[in-house]
Amino acid sequence: MPDGLGTGSARAYALLEPLVRAATVRVHPPRGGYDNPGSDWSGPTWGSGFFIAPGWVLTCAHVVGEGGAAMRLAGRELGITFQSGPDGATGTVAGRVECVLPERLEERRPGRRALWDLPDLALVRVLAPVSHACVWLTDRAGPHLDEAAYFGCTEELGVPEITGRTTRLRGIAAHGAAIRLGDDDEIEAGMSGGPVVDLARGEVVGVVKARRHGGGGGLAVSVSQLRTLPMAATGQTGLYRRVMQAHDLYHHDRHLSDLDSRRTWTDVHDELASAEPDRYGARHGGRGRLTPGEFTTLCGLLAELPPPGSSEAVRELVEQARGEEPDTAVPAPLGWRDGLGLLHDPPGVGGEAAAMLRYATGVSVADHREPPSPGADDELWDWVRTTAERLWRPLRRELGEQRDRGLVERERRRRAHAATGARGRSRTATGPPSGPSVLLEVWAHGWEDVHDWRVSVLAGPARPGHVTPIASGVRVRPHDLPEALRAPLAEGFRRCDTHEAASLLEVAVEPELFGLPVDAWTLSGGVPLGVQRPVVLRHPDGDGGPAAAVRWARVREGPLLDQRADCARGRPRSPSPGWLAGLLDNTVPVLCRAADAEPTLGALRAVRETGYGVLVGRRPPPGPPVSCAPFHRGLREELAEAGRAAVLPQRLRALRARAYGADPDAYWAAGVTLVWDDPARPLPEDEPLQGDL
Predict the structure, then answer these.
(1) CA-closest candidate to residue 43, choices 96, 92, 109
(2) Exposure on the CB side of residue 199, measured as CA atoms within 13 A
(3) Which residues, in sequence order, are bridge partners of residue 471?
């Protein structure tokens, strides 16, 4: 090449290496900290990290946990040495660990020299404003297996310095959470936490995690695992969106600025694509792809908008733009940028650029969680229209018609929402979210004390019967279920939660498993699931007979009548089908005894057979039997106050929250369960395989 940089991966490395080195940092004890009180010496190297947005460093959890076996990781302070200027000068600043992944590392850590649990990531906040470079993170959920380079801190010559080496991405592991690195070179210990760069596309795809015993190659963590950062239970807010918004705005501002003549990531992407477009598969400005400058601008314009209301809203727009359902096996798309990552190499006519412009048009007319900055959505549309004309003029007309339809539909939704709000202001509670829900199915193995399970997304009334599987497992012991289901349920919640409310969790099990304490499981944040979100039980066996629809419609609107079904004045009884069938349609049967023992187990089946889609039960408190009168008395008041069954999932969630918050007036509700068989949310009919034969 005329510039002497060579060709292929050698040229890519030469162009990218200065950008990556400038953003890669050394992680070590804080000055005057744990290992060196009163000293200005920075201490030994714990590992590496890299800036992904202004003020935010990504590294491995095991790096920030160095030497702190008894110390809480989140909140721990450390030192960060970084390149502070174009001349290679370094500076040191204090950082604080904001969070680690997985969260359970705070409770249980591996032994010395053992691998830490995936994804083994930590996000560090810088505690002072400093000027620094940031890497470009991939928007794709999974890496392409191609040439790569990894960077980190080494001390080969006795002085800590950031170095880089080339390798190949050999494959993925742990369902895409980890990337296998080739054995071209040895990964030194101080390089843990450093960035892995895809040389073919010029983007960071992973974080160096470990080297193989005996040297040569190792593992990296996919940066898509950042999407598993904790989010508030009341909706999709949190660090991931804040950090990625800052990432995109940083690169957008650098692309537009004329104050600095140094190469930007966008400049390098353009040089790589211009030199060898076929080899690098980059966005090269033809009709099929956006140019690097256009893509950076699009990411920046999307970052100016409020985040999407839910992950499913992103997936729906992607499906419309792509012409097919996007990959369901990747982490949930949480931001508008994540949707772009699902639009590469789409099927059909028009190519990637057309799909991204259709998607951006949909975003410009979406319902945002809060009003966008004045003119932000119009600016996005103006850019879409101009770019469409460059690509293919008929596309501009198609997108204009799409936007017109979207504006009409958005206005219709807003008017309907306003009318509903005006009619419903007097209500103290609402029904559960009407959109997608998380479905947990658990099956028992007969006489064996093990269970099979499956977690899915149930689309809800908008697409009845549509189910998107997330994960499944077999032969899990009851006490191991919470740990086995921690990650799949979290992924389901990320897909279904909205900025307005936490999604519904539906637990479909046979009556003998109605005592499964799913609402009491603590999976994230130290708060039980039933306090964070509405949790309901479902019968997996059909629609409950011809009377079910009538009873459901009547009880949903109320008023509600409670009726003890498995006890009479505190003594157990078995209700007959004839007696149950003769109760008024707005009756809610109440069961106060253990679900897996008679006569309650038989009562549960009889209640279902006679068409009751709503019933309330409980897990009796441990210890000697106590009177069930407080439970029945408190529940009768609750049902009378609720007035209709439609609000029961949310009201019982609030009751659990009161009991969890030590409200004595709500102690009677401990262990309360709700069966809520909504006919508008049909369940899948198949069951998983029962393990190996």
Answers:
(1) 92
(2) 24
(3) 455
Residue 244 φ/ψ, nearest 5 degrees: -70, -30
How confident is the model at residue 216, as a pLDDT? 60
Looking at residue 70, its amino acid is: A
* Strand runs labelled E in 216-361: 218-222
Burial class (CB in 10 A: 0-12, 13-18, 19+), 609: middle
* 591 contacts: CB under 8 Å, gap ≥ 6: 565, 566, 600, 603, 604, 607, 615, 616, 617, 618
348 phi/psi in degrees, rounded to 5: 80, -165
For the residues of 204-242, what is the DSSP string, one character each?
EEEEEEEE-TTSS-EEEEEGGGGGGS-B-TTSS-BHHHH
* CA angle, residues 179, 274, 394, in degrees to nearest 5: 100
Cα–Cα distance, 89 to 570 (Å, whole number): 78
Question: Are the C-beta atoms of residues 569 and 542 closer than 8 Å to each other?
Answer: no
Taking the complete model, does pTM exceed 0.90, yes or no? no
With beta carbons less than 8 A apart as the criterion, state whether 320 and 346 touch: no
Burial of 114 (0-12, 13-18, 19+ CB in 10 A): exposed
> In whole angstroms, what is the distance from residue 465 CA to residue 541 CA?
14
Q: 7, exposed or middle or buried, with CB in 10 Å at 0-12, 13-18, 19+?
A: exposed
Q: Strand 90-101 relative to strand 161-173: parallel, antiparallel, unpaired?
A: unpaired
3-state secondary structure 90-142: EEEEEEEEEEEECHHHHCCCCCCCCCCCCCCEEEEEECCCCCCCCCCECCCCC
Asked if 197 contacts 148 with a C-beta cutoff of 8 angstroms, the reply is: yes
**Distance set, CA 94 to CA 26, 28, 161, 224 (Å):** 12, 10, 19, 26
Let me know if 72 is exposed, middle or buried by CB neighbors in 10 A (0-12, 13-18, 19+).
exposed
pLDDT at 390: 84
- Of 223, 89, 218, 86, nearest to 165 (Cα)? 218
Q: Alpha helices, DSSP H only, in 560-692? A: 577-581, 600-609, 629-642, 648-660
Look at residue 568 in the predicted model and tell me its pLDDT: 87
pLDDT of residue 156: 76
For the chain, the farthest-separated pair of C-alpha atoms sits apart, in whole angstroms, at: 93
Record the tokens describing residue 646, joined without a space.
């439609």
The DSSP bridge partners found for residue 448 are: 445
**Quick check: helix, strand or coil at residue 346?**
coil
- What are the residues facing 238 on neighbouring strands? 231
* H-run or E-run covering 356: helix 351-364
- For the chain of 693 residues, list the mean pLDDT of each consecutive stretch of 10: 66 96 96 52 87 96 82 91 84 94 84 85 94 96 89 86 92 91 81 96 95 73 92 62 94 90 93 67 59 96 91 92 87 93 83 94 88 87 93 87 93 78 49 88 88 94 88 94 94 89 94 95 88 94 75 90 90 91 94 93 92 94 86 93 93 93 90 93 70 35
Phi first, then psi: give them for residue 136, nearest 5 degrees: -100, 120
Q: Which residues contact 542 (CB under 8 A, 6 or more apart)?
A: none
Closest by Cα among 316, 295, 411 to 363? 316
Structure confidence at residue 460 (pLDDT): 86
Q: Among residues 618, 670, 615, 673, which one has the least CA distance to residue 645?
A: 615
| Residue 425, both tokens | 């202001």
